[in-house]
Amino acid sequence: MANTIEDVMRLEKEFKACHKILTAIGDETRQHLICVMLKSECGGHRVIDIAEHTNLSRPAVSHHMQVLKDAGIVKSRKEGTYIYYYLDPEASQIDALLTLFSDVREFIKYVPDRSGDND
Q1: Under a CB-based contact definition with an 8 Å cutoff, are residues 94 and 73 in contact?
Q2: pLDDT digit string, tens, across residues 81-104
Q3: I want to staple 24 with a disulfide (CB 3.0 to 4.6 A). Which of 47, 52, 71, 91 is the partner?
């Protein structure tokens, strides 16, 4: 069964909906920050604490944490003058990403083989 125009349009919408999370996790620094957060307590992390585990300045960590927050991977809470960042256990954007990857895998099944006989 071939992919229909409607299927391709749906896939395009899924890509657009996942743009922020794809951008966020596509950056090696943000990947590292996620891993730093996964390795330590889940109560939350201040930017200064995260910066101590990286080669990044506090402003750089703040920027990357904001990108992760905008992408729906990280949340924050304020306690007094401190802001704590933590991984979002719901992370619905990750579910959208999983759906996108599943759909891409399904679409690829119906793409004609164009590799030719010149292997």
Answers
A1: yes
A2: 999 999 988 878 899 999 999 999
A3: 71
Tokens representing 32?
A: 């590292």
| 105, two tokens | 């895998």
Residues with Cβ within 8 Å of 117's Cβ and at least 6 positions away in sequence, in order, are none
Mean pLDDT computed over 57-65:
96
The strand ranges marked E within the chain are 74-79, 82-87
**Helix, strand or coil for residue 18?**
coil
The set of residues, in sequence order, having a beta carbon less than 8 Å from that of 10 and lying 6+ positions away, is 103
Measured in residues, the chain has a length of: 119
